[in-house]
Amino acid sequence: MVGVGAERTAEIAASVERFVRDVVIPLEQGAPRSSHGPSDDFVQALRVKAREAGVLTPHILPDGSHLSQRETAKVLIKSGLSPLGPLACNTMAPDEGNMYLLGKVGSPELKERFLKRMVAGEARSAFFMTEPAAEGGAGSDPSMMQTTCVQDGNHWVINGRKAFITGADGAKVGIIMAKSADGACMFLVDLPDPAIRIDRVLDTIDSSMPGGHSVITIDNLRVPADQMLGQSGEGFQYAQVRLSPARLSHCMRWLGACIRANEIATAYACKRQAFGKLLVDHEGVGFMLADNLIDIQQSELMIDWCASVLDSGSLGTAESSMAKVAVSEALMRIADRCVQIMGGTGVSGDTIVEQVFREIRAFRIYDGPTEVHKWSLAKKVKRDFLKANPA
């Protein structure tokens, strides 16, 4: 991936950072939200401001080209400095990953009908892959998918159940994965649709994404055949095109949030007096801040390394798994230390530190738990060894 170069990337990232710090952060305390995320009206109001500032969907250029993954990292980290930043700048999940997928594999017709609205920040989207674990559906193992699609003339009929579908409530575009006789398939659909029912919106530990996370029933949904991505049976192939960069994008955004949380904790430690001196002068606190700097730097390097692999044209499945594990665990340590440094203030809503802690805890599970990625990497270790050392 060619990208726009270091100088132009730095300009875009600086513009995003100014916008988030000067416009978005002052709105954090008064943001209208529920336990299922900020309201759509508020998100649209933020996007009006982002559009005026020239930072709406900054990772996709006016000609439709996409920043390289390394360039995207510079920008998305800055958008993540506030939990509201990705919403305002249209770099949030699942939209950012869905836009990337459609930009890569969507037909011109699908791009015009679905992607254009998403890039403009006018339509939120949802990615319907995960299924209820209690019903034996696909969770971290998509090969267990039970949602089916059957061709009926020039339509496909989809039936099944989905769970933890981020942003489905209020979304206007859906990407649905289902299983045909050929294998996994992927479809683009307009939302809402009476055949797609939201059974409930789950109460979860995180609260940054509009629409929350829903349990869905799909009942005889008829989708025109030309709204399938690619051919029947190619769904897993397209899922990998989306999932590896999306895991890395999560790392980028939440690194930005942890950088901000560390700034808040640092300011607190450098101003708060206890036992005759500033908190930062107590080794127990100062060392935690030092450890945060180390974890932040290591996370930045891991993101940059994985992004360079993706930019080389590789799917980067193993690399994105390593980045997801290393960065999510490092960010959890950072967020936890920030709460600990700030004591009672750290668990209050007076700053974003407690929210960042909750969001990062959820991130360790979303897009694949740490243990699943380690298991996948262990299988690769064995496979590579047997290939190099045949019996």
The termini sit apart by 39 Å
Could you give a short account of the major beta sheet? 4 strands, antiparallel
Give me the number of helical elements: 11
> pLDDT under 50 segments (min length 5)?
none
Order of helices and strands: HEEHHHHHEEEEEEEHEEHHHH
Number of strands: 11
Overall mean confidence score, pLDDT: 95
What percentage of amino acids are in beta strands?
15-25%
CATH structural fold name of the largest domain: Butyryl-CoA Dehydrogenase, subunit A, domain 3
| Order of strands across the main sheet | 4-5-9-8
The structural class is alpha+beta
Indicate the CATH class of the largest domain.
Mainly Alpha
Radius of gyration: 21 Å
Description of the molecule:
This protein is an alpha+beta fold and 391 residues long. The protein folds into 3 domains: 6-92, Acyl-CoA dehydrogenase/oxidase, N-terminal domain (Butyryl-Coa Dehydrogenase, subunit A, domain 1), CATH 1.10.540.10; 125-232, Beta Barrel (Butyryl-CoA Dehydrogenase, subunit A, domain 2), CATH 2.40.110.10; 236-388, Butyryl-CoA Dehydrogenase, subunit A, domain 3, CATH 1.20.140. Helices cover 50% and strands 16% of the residues. The chain is built from 11 helices and 11 strands. It has helices spanning 6-24, 40-53, 69-79, 85-89, 95-105, 108-119, 235-271, 283-311, 317-342, 353-363, 370-388, and strands spanning 33-34, 37-38, 125-128, 148-152, 155-166, 173-180, 183-190, 196-202, 213-224, 273-274, 277-278. It has a 4-stranded antiparallel β-sheet, with no helix packed on it. Strands 3-6-7 form a 3-stranded mixed β-sheet, covered by helices on one side. Strands 1-2 form a two-stranded antiparallel ribbon. Strand 6 (173-180) and strand 7 form a beta hairpin. The longest helix has 37 residues, at 235-271. The two termini are 39 Å apart. The mean pLDDT is 95.
